[in-house]
Amino acid sequence: MMNDMDRFDKNKEFEEYVKIAEKAEEERSGIEAESEYDTLDSEVDDEDYPYEVKNIRVEQKMITVFQIEHWMQNEILILQPEYQRNLVWDYKRKTALIESMMMKIPIPAFYLDENANGKKYVIDGMQRLSAIHEFMNDGFRLRKMQYLSSSCEKKTFSQLDIKFRSYIEDTVLTVNILDERCPQMVKFDVFRRVNTGGVPLNPQEIRNIMAQPKVRTLLKKMAGCEEFLSATNHKVKDIRMSAQELCLRYLTVRYAYDWEKREFVNYRGLLKMMDASVLRLNNRKEEELEAILKEFQNIMVQCEKVLRTMYFCKPGSNALNKSLFTAWTVVFANRKTESQKLDAYVDQIRKEYNILLEEDSEFYRSITSSTGTKKHIQFSIESVRSIVEGFL
């Protein structure tokens, strides 16, 4: 039985692992790591926003590989949508999967999302379907087989005996399809529940499942525009859509925060608000999205003038801080300031901001822990706002 000292050692070991993981995440993305806890709000209870069980529409079908391949060839099933990561299995894993099918070993279930046009997108099982599709189109040879090497080693699909080709084509797959009638917000939760693959999708990758192409394009343009890259010193990498998530975070708070009342409208917790923000952007017209991009580019220019070499970072850190980014962008989005007027006061604003960072412990806490809570988002915005409005 584990004693208290053992538990202490285990907890310390886990804490060290988390620190290492967060450090690695920062180095990859250039953005300060933020735990899931930091994005939660204790005042918001998921039970306040229940959905009817009858609204969860998941249809389970038993479909052969031959039928799945037919769907792919006719673009009924979209195998490589924009939101999926560019992760590829090595030949060992692909060979093992194909060999299992040839041996009639059942394969875990797949999850697809169906839209109003009947097209289906992969939620869970992307790498398996990719491997099957690639092999059936002679995309690779079987290598280092465990049981069937004597008859199938180094062969492509078309080179296999008809017996084994039939085994593969006749393999029955369990496919769970989220019906297009399923409410959009319900789908977000379902996606997270079934998202159990080897490298699960992160929240932004899940949101991009729900985003229309025009919204994906907007977020890509925001994260890739020269104004954003320059204002962040080219530090932020869009690895696993981390830069796009940062831009969506700005848009979410920008439109949810009532500038006049100095409070949020219908606050539901940052994660759910960002989910809902994608759906609202889906309903925007193309010209509205273009206006959003143009405004964002102007905001980035203003931020760079004020922050210069600080680049939304906390003192002593080289990683961009999401809370500082959100606070400055939301303030400048609401303060329509002419360039010449900003130029006249930029040094004074920067000086006051440095004092805020170095001397205000409450502000520092708001951008360091529980950063996605309503209280801390509001406090960080209003702190930056008070500086800017003191001069402009």
Write up what this structure looks like.
By secondary structure, this protein is an alpha/beta fold. It is built from 17 helices and seven strands. The protein has helices spanning 4-29, 65-73, 91-102, 126-136, 149-152, 162-169, 184-194, 203-210, 213-224, 226-231, 242-256, 270-282, 286-307, 322-334, 339-359, 361-366, 374-389; strands spanning 58-64, 77-78, 110-114, 120-124, 172-178, 257-258, 263-264. The strands form two sheets. The chain has a five-stranded mixed beta sheet. It has a two-stranded antiparallel ribbon with strand order 6-7. Helix 14 (322-334) packs across helix 17 (374-389). The chain is elongated and about 80 Å long.
Brief overview, please?
The chain is α/β, with parallel strands linked by helices.
Topology:
Layout lengths: L3 H26 L28 E7 H9 L3 E2 L12 H12 L7 E5 L5 E5 L1 H11 L12 H4 L9 H8 L2 E7 L5 H11 L8 H8 L2 H12 L1 H6 L10 H15 E2 L4 E2 L5 H13 L3 H22 L14 H13 L4 H21 L1 H6 L7 H16 L3
Parallel strand pairs: 2-4, 3-5
Antiparallel strand pairs: 1-5, 3-4, 6-7
Strand order of the largest sheet: 1-5-3-4-2
Question: Between the first and last Cα atoms, what is the distance in angstroms?
Answer: 64 Å
The stretches of 5 or more residues where confidence is low (pLDDT under 50) are 14-22
* Overall average residue pLDDT: 87
Shape: elongated
Query: Secondary-structure element sequence?
Result: HEHEHEEHHHEHHHHHEEHHHHHH
CA-atom Rg in angstroms: 25 Å
Biggest beta sheet attributes: 5 strands, mixed
The helix content is: 40-55%
Helix and strand content put the structural class at alpha/beta
Number of helices: 17
Q: What is the count of β-strands?
A: 7
Provide the β-strand percentage band: 5-15%
